[in-house]
Amino acid sequence: MENKPTPEELAIQAGKEYKAAIQKRIEDETKAGFLNPFGEGVNYEQFLKACGGKANVANYCKGMLDEDPTKDAEKLAFLLSDLKHYDKDFPAEKTEDSPKKNK
User: Fold this and answer.
1) Peptide bond just before 37 cis, omega within 30 deg
2) CA proximity to 80, closest of 60, 103, 50
3) How far is the C-alpha of 3 from the C-alpha of 98, rounded, in Å?
4) CA atoms lying within 13 Å on the CB side of residue 52
5) Which residues contact 11 (CB under 8 A, 6 or more apart)?
6) 17, 34, 42, 83: which has the fewest Cβ within 10 Å?
């Protein structure tokens, strides 16, 4: 008798494959030179590392978030605003004595 995986085992395997595919896309985008901060599975820690830090966000993203310049500007404004909530020190760079965020 063949040992077929249970629906739960199939779901777990599908989840692992999905997460691996997202991680590969993130790595590929980073290597290609632009990690979209709004891409599925991307967190701000990964994004900030990819763009070289908070001081570079506006230059890194300008013209890359949307083909429509108006929407691009709106998305960039939202991103900059949202990053302030993510990191209270934004846009100033953290120093060694800055408190660490609990994740």
Assistant:
1) no
2) 60
3) 55
4) 9
5) none
6) 17
Q: Which of 71, 66, 37, 68 is nearest to 54 (CA)?
A: 37
pTM above 0.70, yes or no: yes
Residue identified by tokens 């230059």 is 59
Q: Which amino acid is at 5?
A: P
Q: Helix, strand, or coil here: 88?
A: coil
For the chain, what's the residue count? Answer: 103
Place of tokens 């995986």: 5
Q: Which two tokens stand for residue 83?
A: 């990053």
